[in-house]
């Protein structure tokens, strides 16, 4: 009887006591936030979402708004798909993902129209194109469908932050060097222009966005040699 009781106690211990709950911000969970900012950046490493980096980075303001919009859409979509992952038939999972992302994008677009109409007009179709953004759909398919709600939320925030970081960096240099402004305000003093400084109009052209992204990729790989592909 004693042996039987002890074995039952061990089973109870294994079932309940030893199942430690993973901390919300454990090392693994923190990596979901930090990796997309550097080693697994959606733009500079995975080479996704390049179109928006070319289209909306002439000025800093639309780049920041787009980054926040993508973060809201990705976080909400990842959470919803994670909640529904066991209910979604495999055959229609892409359709369900598109419906969820489209709903979130429409919600974000309506909020921008209500509270930031000028920026909404400036971004125009690019907000709608979040629906087809490879980063959003890729994370839903590769992560949210196979992980819990909290991890999916962190993954969405992390990847959107990594995407937004590159967008903001590109927009910063393009607006500063192309027009001498940031957020529409002149930051290069008139005295500098009087000395002969001229804005670089090439920075306002789309090819310079691609060149700027290329320079960021080169800097990242120079700093982190493990990202360099071996022949």
List keywords for this structure.
mainly alpha; 2% strand; 2 strands; 231 residues
Mean pLDDT: 82
Helix/strand/pairing class, anyone?
mainly alpha
* Sheet with the most strands, sense and barrel status: 2 strands, antiparallel
User: What is the strand content?
Assistant: under 5%
Helix content: 55-70%
The beta-strand count equals: 2
Uncertain runs: 10-19
Distance between the termini: 66 Å
General shape: globular
- Tell me the series of helices and strands, N- to C-terminal: HHHHHHHHHEEHH
Strand order in the largest sheet: 1-2
Number of helices: 11
Our Rg estimate from Cα atoms comes to 23 Å
Please state the oligomeric state of the protein chains shown.
single chain
Architecture overview:
This protein has a domain at 45-172. Helices cover 66% and strands 2% of the residues. The chain has helices at residues 2-17, 27-34, 50-55, 60-84, 93-115, 117-123, 125-128, 134-142, 149-179, 190-194, 206-223; strands spanning 181-182, 185-186. The protein has a two-stranded antiparallel ribbon. Strand 1 (181-182) and strand 2 (185-186) form a beta hairpin. Helix 5 (93-115) crosses helix 8 (134-142), helix 8 packs antiparallel against helix 9 (149-179) and helix 9 (149-179) packs across helix 11. Residues 10-19 have low confidence and may be disordered.
